[in-house]
Amino acid sequence: MKILILNGSPRKNSNTRALLEQIAAGAQGHQVQLVDVAGLQVGGCRGCDACRKNGGSCVQRDDFAALLEQMRAADCILFGTPVYFWGISAQLKLCIDRLYAGGEGILHKQVGMVAVGADSLDGPQYRLIAEQFACIAEHLSWQVLFQEPVSASEAGEVLGRPELLERMRQIGGRL
């Protein structure tokens, strides 16, 4: 199985990336690619609908076209995001919004989401992200394999939590 993991954190060595790396490590036997979307040049959807008129191709010439091809080729797409103002990071949300131009090519994928925030797990941000992700998944006929909220506020904090790292490896192992 081809697994594409999209890291929406702009921080190098972030808690989000560390957890996604654990999922990747657990997914032995699969072809796994981890992409830091913050390093890509991706413009926001312009809502121009040109993609609807020209066969799903966006008029913007940026890094999203190549990412979309990776998403189309993947059997499973995993999303990781830090919590920014009760939602998905802007870097990852840009990529999700741009699926408007190529959503048909990524229907019926298996997907998962890891959201890492500083608030306790009963905070509203995890519910809001889960609900938004569920709506996106329903619209694109995605099968949601997991949504994993994680509370971690300090840089590198997750690396000191072996039970959490093991849980992420187990998620990867179930893919």
TrEMBL record:
Recorded superkingdom: Bacteria
GO molecular function, one term: oxidoreductase activity
Keywords, alphabetical: Flavoprotein, FMN
Keyword presence, Flavoprotein: yes
InterPro entries according to UniProt: Flavoprotein-like_sf (IPR029039), FMN_Rdtase-like_dom (IPR005025), ISF_SsuE-like (IPR051796)
SUPFAM superfamilies, per database record: Flavoproteins (SSF52218)
Domain called NADPH-dependent FMN reductase-like: residue spans: 1-120
Name assigned to this protein: Flavodoxin family protein
